[in-house]
Amino acid sequence: MLVGNKVDLLPRDSNNYLQHLTNCLERTAKETGLEGANLVHTSLISATTGFGVESLIDKIFSVWGFKGDIYLMGCTNVGKSSLFNMFLQSDLCKVQVVDLIQRATISPWPSTTLNLLKFPVTRPDNWRIVMRQNRLRNDKRSLKALNAYRNLEVRETHNPVFATLIGHVGRTFVDTKKLDEVDKYNRIKDIFHINPYAKIPNPVLQKKGDWDSENTEFIHGKWCFDTPGAVTKNQILDQLTLQELMHTIPKEIIQPRTYLIHPEMSLFVGGLARLDYKAGSRYIRLIVFTSQHLEINIVKTENAEEVYQKGLGGPIFGIPFGNEARLKEFPPLQGKKFQLVGVNHNLCSADIVISSTGWIGLNIGTGQKIDLEVFTPNGKGMFCRIPSFLPNVLTLKGKKLRGSLSYSHRMPFVPRQ
User: Fold this and answer.
1) What pTM did the predictor assign?
2) What mean pLDDT do residues 272-288 have?
């Protein structure tokens, strides 16, 4: 199963944007080495707000069943530990150990998960699935009412916080009466099914994490593992300090910032990336998707190198920051050239992805040819993504600010009911 996390950070640009994101995710996965993998399902979720997590658990129960162990795998800072902790409080985890298993450490610092944390997985027997679906139907009605209220708040306040995708992850098997009733009629010999509220002596557990995974109640079951994150050669996270990471990684819904630039102009994303518009017949628009803490600066390309050297470490770029020794060890920017052709002047034709930082959407005139050069520390983690992740994002652009190259923000997109 392929899981795209942190979808709550992305602004909506159309009613069907989630399906488009799913298609882009599957296409990228195949292009980067999963072409021959047995991909049975793709989910978009938020391990922070709970969006899509219950649907993912449904798919795990229906497709994965009880065939084998579950491993959460991926690069650093994709949210594996957050998802592990969310699963820990869900129907996926056996109720006997929900409050006893140590939670995974959540940190922006790479590779904070050093060991294989695990919990026993609930067996998806039919009676459990029926009880679970009944709870989910009730939760769905409540969540629908909450989303209607949040859409109303977006229209009235224009606050993007209310446009964040949310969900609810709950636990079904906590009702004493229901469980006792099931115990009377359930004739399936499931050594893992124990009513935690029944009057059955339980092992004495001294503290969180103090439980016997070799107990006969668990040893023959299946497990869900949280694995250490992989650091790839395209990431720049290992080049940043913890303070710099806190400013680089977005923690709330991203507000795209739109700029108009002409040929021979350059745009800086903090001190982490630089985009040069080398050649083209007319202006283009750049839509920047990064943390709001990363400063955006636009200069003439002929002055870009001088501005970078003088401004690095100061408030102009913000990141990186520190003393002279820190700035001296920061890797130099190295470039890579791209040639693109515009598809539709009302849409983003492509994205320039800057690994670990964000991406820049490119709004190019129909049929217009442009030459770009993009710079990152040591030339790491930059590539062109076609089609754009959020091609309709110009709908969120306001009016161009007088005397400026930037545009104001419009009200967040509100989906049709």
Assistant:
1) 0.86
2) 97
